[in-house]
Every structure is written in structure tokens, then in C-alpha cells.
Amino acid sequence: MQEKQLHSGGKILFFNKDYISEFVYGGIDGAITTFAVVAGAEGASLGISVVIILGLANLIADGFSMSVGNFFSTKAERDAYERHRQVEYWEVENLREKEVQEIREIYAAKGFQGELLEQVVGVITADKDVWVDTMMKEELEMVKSDKTPYKTAGMTFISFLIVGAVPLLSYVFVGSGPAIQKDLFLYSCILTAVALAIVGSFKSFVTEKNIFVGIFETLFLGGIAATLAYFVGDVLEKLFL
């Protein structure tokens, strides 16, 4: 019942399920890379303004870079599909007997034989579009994705910005007083952990793993990245500052 509610209407909660993977991986990358910048800056004992500047610069630049990469990756997949599809159309029109035999071999391998096999072959080859679609799926193992390059890039960028901004919130909305400022990194750690836990729960829907496993993996990777960045910052601060 719960799974049916989550996936009804083509959505997982309030997200289009076709693009949930872009939201998840964009969010994870955004949170981890920004938090790594914050941790590195803290390790180097840099000021609040420097943390914000470095964090925002990383947020915009890396988010844009990741979305552009996603755009070209999705576009390349769609272009490759269309290119192979046109080749199949040419082969159907110019190498008809060869392509008919390939359909016959494909369905013979699935267990069809005799008159039933010939009926299946006849039905498929009677419609050129169905024929080409069958060849694309069965021979080339290629299925056209409904995702568009612009939407995948947009979801990745938005997710990167929203989730990636979380580690910076405590610094941007810093309160007054040395006690509060002293604990900014702690607040950032807590906020980032919460954000990664939420994204990790969505990740479990994409990978179809246990929700607690998804949360643990996301928090673990984020913790490793932050720890490495913190100690690298600390070492560089001692060497050069």
C-alpha cells in the first residue's frame, strides 16, 4: 500500500519519479562537496566570510558543471538511440529478408516455433515501426528514455543548489555572540547530516535498497569526505598560514 501511494501519479512523494535519480545524486554531490569545502575551511581556521565565499563559489560552479555534464550525457544517449534507429529503418527497407530472419531467430530463441513462430514474425514485420522498435529492444538492447536533457540538467542543478546550500546555512544566518559563532561548524554538521539522511532515504527508492541502508551509506560517504577535507585544510593551514 505504501509503495502504491509513493508511486501513484508518476511521482515519489512530490517528485516526478522519472527524475528522482537526478535529484538524489545531484543532492548528494551538492551536500558532500559543499560540506567538504566548509570542513576544509574550518580545518584551516578561515573566517566566516571566507567559508561563505568558498562555499557559494563551489555551489554555483560545481552545480553548473554537474548539470552540464548530465545534459550532454543524456543528449548523447538520445542521439545514439536515434542514430541506431535510423540504421534499423534503412536495414528494414534495404535488407528486408535478412532482418526478417533476425526477427525469426530472436523469437525462436525465446521458444517460439513452427506456425506460431511464423505468425509472430508476420505480425511484427507487417508494421515497420513495430519492427524497428523490436529490433532496437531485442537486438541492440536499446530503449528510448523519456527523460529530456534539459529536464535532467535542470533537476540536477536545482537539487545541487538546494541540498548543497544546507551546509552553509548556519554561516549565512549566523547569530550574534562568540558562543554561537564557535558552534557554527557543529550546526553545519547537524544540518548536513539531516539533509543527507533525507536524500539517502530517496536514494533507497532509486536503488531499491533498505531505507536505513541508503541513509547510512549517504551519511558515511559524506562523513569521509568531510573528514578528509578537514584534515587537509588543517595540514595546509599549518604549512602555509
UniProtKB/TrEMBL annotation:
Keywords: Membrane, Transmembrane, Transmembrane helix. It is a multi-pass membrane protein. One of its GO terms (cellular component) is endomembrane system. It is found in: Endomembrane system. It comes from the Bacteria. Its main location: membrane. GO terms for biological process: intracellular manganese ion homeostasis. The chain crosses the membrane at residues 20-40, 46-68, 152-172, 184-202, 211-232. PANTHER family: FE(2+)/MN(2+) TRANSPORTER PCL1. This is Predicted Fe2+/Mn2+ transporter, VIT1/CCC1 family. It comes from Salinimicrobium sediminis.
